[in-house]
Each structure stands twice: as C-alpha cells, then as structure tokens.
Design a protein that fits this description.
The protein is mostly beta strands and about 190 residues long. It is built from no helices and 17 strands.
Amino acid sequence: ALFGLSPIRVLGVRPSNTITDRPTQYIVRGQQLQLADQLKLGENSLSRADWAVNTAGTELQFSTLHSLAGVKTLSVSQQNGAQQSVQPAAVLVSQAIAIQNIITSNVKGGAKALSDSGGDQITVQGLGLEGNLSVHLMPYGEGFAPSAANRLPFTLDAGNVIIERSPVTVPGKQYQLVIQRADTNEVVAAG
C-alpha cells in the first residue's frame, strides 16, 4: 500500500472492441476511479478533463478514437503514476472495412460485370477484410437489405474476399456487394 493513497482498481472496460477511426464511448468499471488523474488506452493518453466519473467512483466514461489497429492496454493512474491499475489487452481495435476494388472473371462484360447465368469469380480487395464477415449481393437501389437470402459463400485469401461462383443475375440490372462484420456493427457497400 502507498501512504495516503487509496488504490485505484480497474475491473473492466466496455466495449471491448471497436474499429479504426470510429469515435467510441468507453465505460471503465472499477473502484476509487474519482482519484485518477491520467488514463491511457493504447497510444491515446487522456487527462482528467477528458472523462467523467460517477460520484461513487465506480464508473469512468470517456470517448476516443484509434487510427492504429491492434490490442490496446488500459492504464488508469493517480499522482503522476505513483499508483496505477492496468488491464492488458483491454480493447481490440480492428481495421475498419474499406472496399478498394472489385474484380470479376467475366470475359464478355469486363472486370466489373456479372454473367446472368452466374458462375463468375468475384475478388474483393480492401482493408479490414478479416474476422466474422458476411458477404451479400443484391439489386442496387431497390430497397434490399443484407439477409440470408442474398448471402454468398466466400473464402478469405491474403486479405481479399473471394467468391468462387456468383449467383444468377437479371440481365441489365445493377447489383451491389455488401460486406458486414457484426462484431463491430459495420455494413460497407460497394456499387
């Protein structure tokens, strides 16, 4: 024990995952959190003015965003680090999904076209194409939402989404590819 200091104790933080470049509101649960004067989550350092603590000192709330993906350690300290409570691997920051390019194997219509009889390979290149994804193909601008009916089987290869065989499509109709990651509440659409 430190003389004159009641120890800060971190018991947990929520949410435990987010994505890059998304402002995220965090709640830290613990004891004596009202005594904190410094908080660090990964590479982000915050001062007392950047958060709010309940009167019981059991919940501390703050908002921050991370530009770098990775596992982030939470550290809450008092009196310039004289006492601190650390929770390693407190938050996982995943790379946000960004669709950069879509290429099909369609010979007749070109690299952005789909055969009406199906069977084209579709390669999706981008960022954050990892984790528990679902991939959907639906008519563009017709009010369709991602569902089991338009979900496509796919594999991940070197950070790309590979759809081996596209479904049958309607000639002349435009389609939209949508990638979802439920863990981070992402829904990203490409034309």
